[in-house]
Amino acid sequence: MEHVHVISGEVSVHFDHKWHALKAGESIRFFSDQPYGYQAESEIAVFHNIVCYPK
Fold this sequence. Notes:
Elements: E1 2-8, E2 10-15, E3 18-23, E4 27-30, E5 37-40, E6 46-51
């Protein structure tokens, strides 16, 4: 499981065969056992990416 929280700027996260646009203050989570990716949509983008591994 991955959690993405955008601190500043804009970021798109690709999973489930589509792009999900996020702005500062927005978050999204998804299962990371699939193809996924990140793309900055503004000149500067800062985000936290938290990865959780099951026991």
